[in-house]
Structures are given as C-alpha cells and as structure tokens.
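This is your field. Have a critical look at both lines of this record:
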Amino acid sequence: MGHRDRHLMTDLRSIMPHSKSDSKMHRKKEPMFVVNEIAEMKNCNKCILFESRRKTDLFMWVGGVPRGPSAKFVVENVHTMAELKMTGNCLKGSRPLLSFSKDFDEDPHWSVIRELLSQTFGVPNKHPKSQPFFDRVYTFAIADDRIWFRHYQIVEEDGSLAEIGPRFVLNPIKVFDGGFSGATLWENSKYISPAAGRKALRRLKAGKYRNSVQSKAAFEASRPTEPTYKVDVTDDVFKTLEEKISNEEEEDKKGGKKKSGAKKPKKKKAKLAPAAVESEV
C-alpha cells in the first residue's frame, strides 16, 4: 500500500473506537472468504478490508460477517487528516451522527449500501471504548454516482460545523449477497477500472503522436523534388567580380579576343601649324 492509503486506514481506525485491527493477508494465497473467519475470531459482525493493487489503486470491501451482504468500492480522491490540517477537533472516542442524502432511497442497491455503512461506521450504544457524547457527524452524499464522505465536528448547539477529515470518495463496483463472496446482486455498468482509464489516456497520447508522425510523412511526400525556380547553370549572376574577370581573361587567351570591358583608345586629331593657318586666311 502507498503511504496515503496507510494514513487513511489509520485515520479510520482513530475515528472508529469500536474497531479492531488485524495483520495483512496474502490476497493471492488465501481466498476472500477467509476474511469471515478472521472477523469471527475477533468477535466482529462487520468488516472493512483494504486491497491495494500496483501501489496506486485502493479498493475497499465492506461486508457483513459471515452471511453478508458485502460491497466493493474504489477509493478515490483521498485526503488524510494530517494533509488537510482542518480546524475541527472533537473528543476522541465520541459517538458520531450518521447523515445520508435522500439519493440513498431511490434505488435498492443504494439502500443496501446505506445499511452496510450505517452498521459499520455507527458506534454501538454503551460501547466500552466510546464516550456517551455526540459531537461529530459522518456525512455520506451521492454525487456523480459516487459516495462522498465528510467528517465534521458539531461546534455549537445551533448546528454549526467544522470539518475534521479525512476525505475520500467511494466508487461502487459490485454488491454481493454473501460475506466477501457469493452471487452478484448489483453491478455498476458505468464503472471503468483505474488501469483501463490509464490505458485509455496512454492510447489517446499515442494517437496524437501517431497523427503527428503521419502528418510529417505526408508533408515530406508532398514536397516538390525539383527547385521552384529553374536557374541557368551558365548564368554568372551569383559569381563574384574576381571570378568574372578571371573567366574573361581565360577566354581572351584562348580566342585572342579583347576584353569585353576594356575601352578602345581614342585617336588624336592632328593639329595644323600656325603658318599654314595664316596662309589659308
């Protein structure tokens, strides 16, 4: 189990004075109905079993011993007392008031779950480890087909409350007619396992990556192989001045031609002598 799951189990034991703990059991080596025998040895008629998988997913069983019924939940959104640091505080070992929303009366499976939770979390009257006071409230509310648990302290007589903690959400999976075994009375059709949810997220990310790779491949395939503007190979537009001059000199040496850029020398006009000018006049 993870550290948060262990702290949640410790918090539930601290707020339930009538609870008795037991050591771990090997889920693969021992069948589930062995829990009934362990609970009977502890002289208990209700049992809560925490089952951890992959050190990330926490499942909680709540069942009656030995004839049931029992229910299996996935514990989600866990927040422990030490993590929340709420201002509420109450007498240790006091009896709680159980508050259930009206949604528990709509369907039969919710009624069975309500009876299981009320008998499990409710402290028996005149229990030797309990105090004869009511200064706390356990709230079970249904929202989004899940059970939301909250723990409050009754601060004043007018009904003002202060939350203590812990917080968690129970997502029901199945309801069985026996204690941790038996026929299935109800099964949640909307339930998706945490492993399947993580797999779907990974598949979604893989789909995005696959689409990006395909788009890149399509872009590379559609790119033109030839240059957009064809440039003449013999054109010396991009040549430097020194390269042009050297090419012209090589052409002049081979063909005996003059430089194309050299200017022709101008012919000088013959000047008349002054005597010849006077004789003509």
